[in-house]
Amino acid sequence: MKVKRKSWSMLMLLLIVAVVAAGCGGNAGKTNEGKGENTKAVSKNNKDVVVAINTNFITLDPHNTSDTHSITGARTMYEGLMGFDENMNVVPVLAASHKISDDGLVYTFTLKEKIKFHDGTDFNAEAVKINLDRLRDEKNNLRLRKSFAKVTNITAPDAKTVVITLSEPYNAFLNKMAMALMISPKALTEQGANISKNPVGTGPYKFKEWVQGDRLVVVKNPDYWQQGLPKIDSLTFKPVPENGSRIAMLKTGEADFIYPMPTEQVTEVEGQKDIVLDKIDSTIVRYITLNTMKKPYDDIKVRQAINYAINKDAYIKVVKSGLGSKLDSSMSSKTQHYSKQTGYDYDPEKAKKLLAEAGLPTGFSAEIWGENDSETMKGMQFIQQQLRLLVSS
Fold first, then answer.
1. pTM for this predicted structure
2. Distance (Å) of CA 220 to CA 54, 166, 199, 231, 233
3. Which residues contact 134 (CB under 8 A, 6 or more apart)?
């Protein structure tokens, strides 16, 4: 039950275990990149990698993304002053250093030099100011704007210095700066709203083409500022919503890497010599969002009833093939600022009582919607059955 409005309330459902699979062709060897030191390379020729994903990209405008795949696609081409390492720690990327005033109100970033955008435009302090002004402009209505609501002033005193002033201390501000990826000012002027389809950043890959619903192709940036990167020549992302089709692509070599791995087929491919399967705790959580400004979801008892009515353990078993765990927060324990909370155990009798107290003893009609990939459809059907059972029993 998902309604597009500004005010949402999360229902605690489950934390998924991310399962990804990589195919290894005949020429695959060892790689020395980070933790992959003892892992086989994913590509048959170590040059051009095809990644099959479960949903389409929505936009490549890094200031207006909210879904996982669009963010992933944008981050192959764009970078921010700050970024995240593999443990979700905030680290410098385009910034050489930063300092914060004692009162927590002024952030001063010193930028790395001699970096250019893919179109040859210089990356400098003025480019940063243009980007931050753009995403803060209410007229643009960009999703990232709310993260910069406490910013009152941005100055660029010289080409390598950016000074940002806040209205009050905000301890998550560096995290937000890691989400503010830098777009070429020249491209912003030339492309306007079409920048969402024609990305120009400073990242390791450059945009080649995006055929919506079919593929996104990015190619190696030969002038990338970090020496030795990237390691491969191209990445092709192919949206493939149907689980069986993604598995088939992996088995035949049409895809070198698939995400997510269909959980119901994990046992089928485990142990196969040409497939590397990784199971890791994920930062991704699955939940229902409700519009708390709309009846009956404005009543906390209704929201609580829905929570108690859904058997999370059964959901994990049926939809995720056991690869997941119930949430004890609105975010993953692998995410910064995670704080454990009390969740909702399965209790249909309590759910019925709450609905009755809310004046809805016989229930109400609602619509649930989400992505059209196989697993999401299965999950929505499970939730539909659970809620229908609540009022029919």
1. 0.75
2. 24, 37, 14, 8, 5
3. 63, 140, 142, 183, 188
Using alpha carbons, list the distances in angstroms from residue 88 to 263, 308, 332, 364, 369: 25, 32, 12, 41, 30
List residues bridging with 161 in a β-sheet.
Answer: 110, 158
Question: Is the preceding omega at residue 260 within 30 degrees of 0, hence cis?
Answer: yes
Cβ neighbours of residue 246 closer than 8 Å, sequence gap 6 or more:
52, 54, 240, 255, 258, 262
Distance from C-alpha of 199 to C-alpha of 49, rounded to nearest angstrom: 20
Q: Cis bond leading into 230, ω under 30°? A: yes
Q: What are phi and psi of 83, to 5 degrees?
A: -155, -170
Per DSSP, the three-state class of 144 is helix
Tokens 């009162």 sit at which residue?
103
Which of 212, 233, 214, 236 shows the shortest CA–CA distance to 224?
Answer: 233
The DSSP 8-state label assigned to residue 112 in this structure reads P
> Which pLDDT does position 268 carry in this prediction?
79
> Which residues of the chain are modeled with pLDDT < 70?
1-46, 393
Q: In the structure encoding, which two tokens stand for residue 383, read together?
A: 């939730």
Which two three-digit tokens encode residue 149? 């609501």
Asked if residue 190 lies in contact with residue 181, where contact means CB atoms within 8 angstroms, the answer is no
- Judging by beta carbons within 10 Å of its beta carbon (0-12, 13-18, 19+), is residue 273 exposed, middle or buried? exposed
Q: Among 340, 346, 263, which Cα is nearest to 305's? A: 346
Burial class (CB in 10 A: 0-12, 13-18, 19+), 180: buried
286-316: pLDDT as tens digits = 888 888 899 999 999 999 999 999 999 999 9
Closest CA to 350 of 298, 306, 313: 306
Q: Which one, of 260, 347, 270, 268, lies nearest residue 307 by Cα?
A: 347
- Listed residue (337, 315, 392) closest to 11, CA to CA: 315
Q: What tokens were used for 341?
A: 């909370």
